[in-house]
Amino acid sequence: MSDLDFSQEDRDRASRYHRPLYAATVVRLLIVGGVAAIFTAVPLHAGAPVWALAVTAAAGVATLPLDLWRGLLRERRFGLSTQTVRGWLADRTKGEAVELALAAGVWTVAVALGRALPRWWPVPAAAGLALLVLVLAFIAPVVLDPLFNRFQPLADERLADELRGIADRAGVPVGDVLVADASRRTTRTNAYVSGLGPTRRVVLWDTLLADASEPELRLVVAHELGHRRARHVLKGTALGMAGAVGFVVVLWAVLGALQPDDFPRAMLLFLGYGLAAAPLLSWVSRRWEREADRASLELTGDREAFVGAHLDLARKNLSDLTPPRLAYVFLFSHPTAPERIAHARSR
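RESULT FIELD:
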């Protein structure tokens, strides 16, 4: 990467923003683990759904101040948030409600299976949890995402036709390219692919649409279409389903037939399981991102737009340009902007 791509001020500002957030991630993990550990000693005589709701809600309350600081107050300080406290709390409440419903439902079924099939409960539990991962991947774009954003088809028909042309060349034709109203929360820019089968979609944030040049926008969409062509959403869903099966095996090996008051121990196991899997999942994600980067260059042939887009994305999103090694291994789902630009220039 050329030294002219990012200034020392770019690097220093990104570092000042991210370093406390890495520490906050560790602190949050410890808070959730601490709440779960405390509940292992609580004499709560209740059924499975109450245990799941009580522990999950307590963890949500305990992490609320930290999440408010890192999700809103710090974002405002660095010019990344456009939300009010009320708006942030509304989003937080909706997210917590979804988490509580899933935790209570999954734990209730798991305990019921443990009682009905003390020796064989992991078989239907693993199948059911894997199926839940698949269903969520399928319905999230049309059921969960609209809880947080409004989506509209891209209004510029000329641009939409150009983007569909890229999709046709990629071999993954799309219908509507959707625009999400991200600007009511953030100044960041982004695009993504999600869904399976009829719920598959390419989504552009309205902030990206407003800020990017057309060549850069085509480049970003080509990157997302690269994900679709390589079936990364499907592969990610399959990986999630395999992870769900693996977690059920861990629960069975450590806890045996589940009881309602095993929920805090199950939560501790889940935290450890996620932490152990994080380096592998991050590595796989970075590999897929590099594959999509190559596809974007192949589909557009525009190296200049690639460099410009990733310079703009890194600056606009305040991406960490020189992350600590541990943070990179455990947390980075994308290569750094300098890595991506250097790779494009080497082709």
